[in-house]
Amino acid sequence: MKIFWNAFFAPLRVLLVFALFVSSVSLNNALAQTKAAADSQNKERGSANCAPAGSWTVPGKGEISVTDVIAAAAKRSVVLLGEMHDNTEHHRWQLQTLAALHAEHPDMVIGFEMFPRRVQKALDQWVAGELTESQFLAASDWNAVWSTDARLYLPLFHFARMNRVPMVALNIDTRLRRSVAAKGFGAVPENEREGVLPPSAPSAAYLGYLLPIYGEHERAGKKKNPGRDDPDFLRFVEGQQLWDGAMAQAINAALSRPGRPLVVGIMGSGHIKHGYGVPHQLKALGVSDVGTLLPWNSGTSCGQMIAGLADAVFGTASLSFVGHDAPRQRLGIRFELAEDGGARVLQVEKGSIADKSGIRDSDIISEAAGFSVRRLEDIVEIVKRQAPGTWLPLKLKRGGDTIEIIAKFPAMPK
């Protein structure tokens, strides 16, 4: 009987041992997968917090005190402050950084990408206290040259006015940009160049940086994978260089003022990142003592936080609406009045409502909400009247075609 039971239970013991082994392996695998998932989540949390809101970080190194950042920046000849144009937090950060730099270096000049040189007189009159807000915005042709909600920038303008800090228009007129994009810089008569000199050639790294941006912008077009030798891409690059070079030249001119003041440039972050744009053009002019400071949106992937991105970045919290007034709607385009009527789109901001709706550079908006566009103010006023969550029908002219699209404005977040 004992032999029988041993013979009967022996295979069962083998099966039991095997089952325990399999269970152990499965459990270990499950634990490993759980740990990997937790590590991934922690990594994502770390990614979102590589530049915590309210603190300064040196890309590639780590956190740094505000005292050290401002002390170092105030010793520079030029400091460039980046932004996303419609991000409220970025403009608040710019204001506090301007105030800190002014406390360290009161002899200051503030240059703005938002203004073309032709409106410099309006900037001088504003700083001198000779214009009201509405008069200043009208005299500087704000709705035509920038069109972003002026409330985002007015605190910066008032800071300059209050402290009698000169404001300098860094940009050029859209007509010159369009001429260069169409014909090339060399083909534009010298008397139409607004005193702008040919920009310095771009670095290979800058071309590599711009190519995917151009490709993303052209995704709705026929060219899916443009190369560096693509003629349209090269014209796009020349337009960016013109913009960078013109701002660098205006900053360099401001440095020659008596006392050689600290020149602070307010501009889009794309002109600053990695030193490819305006810093590169300044260096070609002999100005290498340039500080670069950028805002960093909370939750941005840390894969972009690499050494050389900027001297330092400041973590900004996610956007939140403050106050009782709903934010004004905006399409996210730069435009001018076309010769035959309508609004000619000069630039579409990536990720904007216009971008998501399929609007492209050089489109002409002939109608909005069923009304013909005859003045620059027409687009601005119609868009401002749009309530959150509404749809705006637009009629566009693209080449020889007429296209109808719908711009969908998001609902107010709860």
UniProtKB/TrEMBL annotation:
Entry keyword annotation includes Lipid biosynthesis: no
Extract the signal peptide range: 1-32
Against Pfam families, the record matches this protein to:
Cofac_haem_bdg (PF04187), PDZ_2 (PF13180)
Name the CDD domains for this protein: ChanN-like
Instruction: Supply the alphabetized keyword list.
Output: Signal
Q: What positions does the domain PDZ occupy? A: 329-400
Which domain of life does the UniProt lineage start with? Answer: Bacteria
Concerning SUPFAM superfamilies, the annotation shows:
EreA/ChaN-like, PDZ domain-like
* Alphabetized InterPro entries for the sequence: Cofac_haem-bd_dom (IPR007314), PDZ (IPR001478), PDZ_sf (IPR036034)
| Protein name stated in the entry | Uncharacterized iron-regulated protein
- Organism, as annotated: Nitrosospira briensis
